[in-house]
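Design request, tokens follow.
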């Protein structure tokens, strides 16, 4: 693409006539006041109605697309911030729990607000009658619905309570997975509900109730919304459990008034529990980490508490804690599983405390729950950053007309410098996969490991073509080959499988020339294909490592690139100086590399031949007459002649 064409493509975004306003102005105003999506069409429609120049309308269209993208990104971030804020606020309410009747309505109200549903409600299990009853409703208008009782297996809620699993229905009355009863269907019909999502409230393996979100129209609930409602259900269950614990504690204190020593002991335990609740709440609010939680619990319980990965924890005790939902004793230690939505994230281990008070045991369990919330928040933030890094690299690979200034600003926010020297690396797994699911899981692990490496190296990573592509800076003193091999070892260790990495040559000025990333990626892919054809799986190499062999092994042969890398310096020198070093090289090789016969062929003095060959040596390097280099140079000269012809 010529410079004039590029400038003409960019002109609509910044030119709109001598008397017009900048194209971005109306959309910035819409962004500032949080206008609806439909409002972004108005400036373009007004311009068309006023028969404004085509350049002005094109500039408005371009600015509209950018503004809509910014609006979508801002809405996504506000939504994620609102979800995390609501979870943290609810966790804070739980830490300072005094009135269950105040906390449960707040949880239901926040769930309804964040999921954007018409109604949200919570039912609790009644052990005496063996069914569940409505405890809290938000947005409900039907009295009969608010007084419903659901037997086990009856209605959607009864199915959730019976199976202890989340269930969602797009159309309640057409769903045959659960038992319909006249009473329940009448209540649901009075309320006008159509789409319903229900998640269980769990205390260990026991279902104590169900949390619902429902709409009066057909709706498909996304996986993230189901997980979010599950998090609120976990907090609601914890609130109920905490309230029950406080009730039990008060009853115990009332029954032990005559025993001063026991009262003092119970008071000390309760004080420790209150202290750890306050500390955990403070940790959540100020963004503490899992090791901060372990340190706080260790100080209160006067012991050693560690957060361990699942692989480093005794499996039987960990599985027992996960199944029961409580801390379990293992020798002289106590183990509390850290779980979220059925996923095992690790464990909190209290060392050397065989005789643990039940309240302290609950304290350890609550610390495990707070740890899971912190891990989920950290994972959510990391995944968001990985997606943003991948989107930027996708734009560099796919879009040739991106604004360099915007690309540079986006990279700066990710601590990446597009003006530095970079290398594009193509990585692919080479281990055998048993089935498609295992292969997909392995690719996700590779992408996750590559994203982590890119974040730590101030680079970018994205999933592409069944593998992963990375854009990493090349530090001073490092070589492209060393970077490729180091990356292959790092990723292979991270995913526990062989990872092959092909690297491009170093590229500069990516913000000004984003199309250079796509060209470098093609070169890295060719290098990756060459490695795999040579059987060097699990290794890393750069394109320059293969020379002309890369042409023979690659499916898409880059003839011009090979010629430029091999004799491009000589070609450029001849073009600048008007010399004929290429012809001298041709004659030199044709005469068996004999300067004496070459001077006869060229009809010049032998000293002239020597001077020209010395100049060639300075351009191509001292080893240009080695057997391997001679073969590549002769091939490049032949290809250059053929392409010129």
């Amino acid at each position: 693409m010529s410079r004039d064409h590029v400038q003409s493509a960019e002109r609509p975004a910044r030119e709109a006539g001598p008397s017009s306003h900048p194209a971005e102005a109306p959309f910035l105003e819409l962004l500032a006041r949080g206008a609806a999506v439909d409002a972004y069409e108005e400036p373009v429609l007004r311009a068309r109605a006023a028969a404004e120049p085509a350049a002005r309308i094109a500039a408005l269209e371009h600015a509209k697309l950018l503004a809509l993208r910014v609006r979508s990104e801002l809405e996504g971030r506000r939504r994620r911030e609102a979800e995390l804020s609501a979870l943290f606020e609810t966790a804070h309410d739980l830490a300072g729990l005094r009135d269950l009747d105040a906390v449960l309505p707040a949880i239901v109200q926040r769930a309804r607000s964040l999921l954007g549903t018409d109604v949200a409600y919570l039912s609790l299990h009644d052990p005496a009658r063996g069914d569940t009853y409505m405890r809290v409703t938000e947005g409900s208008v039907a009295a009969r619905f608010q007084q419903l009782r659901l037997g086990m297996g009856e209605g959607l809620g009864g199915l959730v309570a019976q199976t202890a699993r989340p269930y969602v229905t797009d159309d309640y009355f057409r769903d045959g997975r659960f038992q319909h009863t006249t009473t329940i269907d009448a209540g649901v019909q009075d309320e006008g509900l159509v789409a319903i999502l229900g998640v269980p409230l769990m205390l260990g393996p026991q279902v104590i109730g169900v949390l619902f979100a429902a709409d009066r129209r057909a709706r498909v609930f996304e996986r993230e919304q189901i997980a979010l409602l599950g998090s609120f259900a976990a907090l609601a269950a914890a609130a109920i459990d905490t309230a029950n614990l406080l009730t039990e504690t008060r009853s115990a204190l009332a029954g032990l008034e005559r025993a001063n020593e026991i009262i003092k002991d119970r008071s000390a335990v309760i004080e420790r529990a209150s202290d750890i609740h306050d500390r955990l709440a403070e940790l959540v609010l100020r963004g503490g980490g899992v090791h901060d939680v372990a340190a706080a619990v260790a100080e209160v319980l006067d012991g050693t508490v560690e957060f361990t990965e699942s692989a480093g924890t005794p499996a039987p005790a960990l599985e027992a804690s996960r199944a029961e939902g409580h801390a379990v004793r293992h020798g002289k230690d106590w183990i509390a599983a850290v779980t979220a939505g059925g996923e095992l994230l690790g464990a909190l281990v209290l060392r050397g405390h065989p005789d643990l008070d039940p309240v302290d045991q609950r304290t350890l369990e609550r610390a495990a729950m707070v740890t899971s919330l912190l891990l989920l928040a950290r994972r959510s933030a990391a995944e968001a950053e990985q997606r943003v890094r991948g989107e930027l690299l996708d734009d560099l690979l796919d879009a040739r007309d991106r604004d360099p200034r915007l690309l540079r600003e986006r990279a700066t926010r990710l601590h990446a410098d597009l003006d530095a020297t970079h290398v594009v690396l193509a990585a692919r797994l080479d281990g055998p996969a048993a089935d498609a699911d295992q292969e997909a899981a392995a690719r996700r692990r590779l992408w996750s490991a590559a994203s982590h490496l890119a974040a730590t190296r101030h680079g970018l990573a994205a999933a592409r073509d069944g593998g992963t592509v990375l854009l990493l800076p090349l530090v001073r003193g490092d070589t492209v080959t060393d970077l490729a091999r180091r990356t292959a070892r790092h990723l292979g260790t991270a995913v526990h499988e062989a990872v092959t990495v092909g690297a491009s040559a170093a590229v500069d000025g990516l913000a000004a020339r984003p199309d250079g990333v796509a060209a470098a990626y093609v070169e890295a892919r060719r290098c990756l294909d060459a490695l795999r054809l040579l059987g060097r799986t699990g290794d890393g190499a750069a394109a320059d490592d293969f020379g002309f062999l890369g042409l023979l092994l690659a499916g898409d042969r880059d003839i011009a690139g090979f010629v430029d890398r091999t004799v491009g310096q000589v070609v450029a020198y001849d073009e600048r100086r008007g010399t004929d070093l290429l012809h001298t090289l041709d004659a030199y090789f044709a005469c068996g590399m004999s300067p004496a016969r070459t001077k006869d062929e060229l009809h010049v003095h032998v000293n002239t031949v020597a001077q020209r060959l010395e100049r060639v040596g300075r351009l191509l390097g001292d080893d240009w007459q080695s057997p391997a280099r001679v073969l590549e140079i002769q091939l490049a000269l032949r290809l250059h002649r053929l392409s010129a012809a």
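Comment from the thread starter after seeing the answer: thanks! Residues 1-20 have pLDDT under 50 and may be disordered.
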